[in-house]
């Protein structure tokens, strides 16, 4: 696991984590897993969220849970899939809400890199998974690492919008100073829960309103079709 794949801005704020016993144990676990199992995302994509959204550029933190575990889906951004891959159900529901909320056309691709490039840190709580086995890398150390990421984003002097969908993400509220930052919460967009408070929650317009209130440029949520591969 190449720590050097992290941009310098993230290496600086997370330096202490790399020296902790849990992180070294996590590295050993992943090295063994990659020798004996198929792991997603590919090693070069594990830190994609950090590469695309440097620390100083983070305006929004969108928290997911576990990477997609089927072939060619995960590439290091929560909810996003590689070009040409069928849009997963949770993202389908996000797109429905996006259309209802601010009128964006529903994209034909699930590739969300353009959001990340605009300052949306698209962070999963766990950054790797064994093929076809959901939550297989749970409680191996990633949660401690990503909690440290959330805590460091919380330390930013400028306000950040934290988006916590579902009960798992909302447990991270304790890491966020809500007197300085904005938190947007609702049910998860999963088909199991979207009708319990995600649909109609208008998260995308709320995020942009919060950014504009902090004198930051809003996110252009429109996803073009230029990444589709047939």
UniProtKB/TrEMBL annotation:
The EC number(s) this enzyme carries: 3.2.2.27
Cellular-component GO terms for this entry: cytoplasm
Catalytic activity annotation: Hydrolyzes single-stranded DNA or mismatched double-stranded DNA and polynucleotides, releasing free uracil
Superkingdom, taxonomy of origin: Bacteria
CDD domains assigned to the protein according to its UniProt record, in alphabetical order: UDG-F1-like (cd10027)
Active-site annotation: 66 (proton acceptor)
Record-annotated Uracil-DNA glycosylase-like domain positions: 51-211
Principal cellular location given in the protein's record: cytoplasm
Subcellular locations according to the entry: Cytoplasm
Pfam families: UDG
InterPro entries named in the record: UDG_fam1 (IPR002043), Ura-DNA_Glyclase_AS (IPR018085), Uracil-DNA_glycosylase-like (IPR005122), Uracil-DNA_glycosylase-like_sf (IPR036895)
Gene Ontology MF terms: uracil DNA N-glycosylase activity
Role summary: Excises uracil residues from the DNA which can arise as a result of misincorporation of dUMP residues by DNA polymerase or due to deamination of cytosine.
HAMAP family: UDG (MF_00148)
Name of the featured protein: Uracil-DNA glycosylase
Gene responsible for this protein: ung
């Amino acid at each position: 696991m190449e720590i050097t794949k992290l941009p310098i801005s993230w290496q600086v704020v997370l330096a202490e984590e790399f020296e902790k016993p849990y992180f070294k144990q996590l590295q050993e676990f992943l090295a063994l897993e990659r020798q004996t199992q198929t792991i997603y995302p590919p090693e070069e994509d594990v830190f994609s969220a950090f590469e695309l959204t440097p620390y100083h550029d983070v305006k929004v933190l969108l928290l997911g849970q576990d990477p997609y575990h089927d072939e060619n889906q995960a590439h290091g951004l929560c909810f996003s899939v590689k070009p040409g891959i069928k849009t997963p159900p949770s993202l389908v529901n996000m797109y429905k809400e996006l259309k209802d909320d601010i009128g964006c056309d529903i994209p034909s691709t699930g590739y969300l890199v353009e959001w990340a490039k605009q300052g949306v840190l698209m962070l999963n709580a766990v950054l790797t998974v064994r093929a076809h086995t959901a939550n297989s890398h749970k409680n191996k150390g990633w949660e401690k690492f990503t909690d440290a990421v959330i805590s460091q984003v919380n330390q930013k002097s400028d306000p950040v919008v934290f988006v916590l969908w579902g009960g798992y993400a909302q447990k991270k509220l304790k890491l966020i100073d809500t007197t300085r930052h904005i938190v947007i919460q609702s049910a998860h967009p999963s088909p199991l829960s979207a009708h319990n408070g995600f649909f109609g929650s208008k998260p995308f317009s709320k995020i942009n309103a919060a950014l504009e209130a902090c004198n930051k440029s809003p996110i252009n949520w429109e996803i073009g079709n230029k990444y589709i591969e047939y």
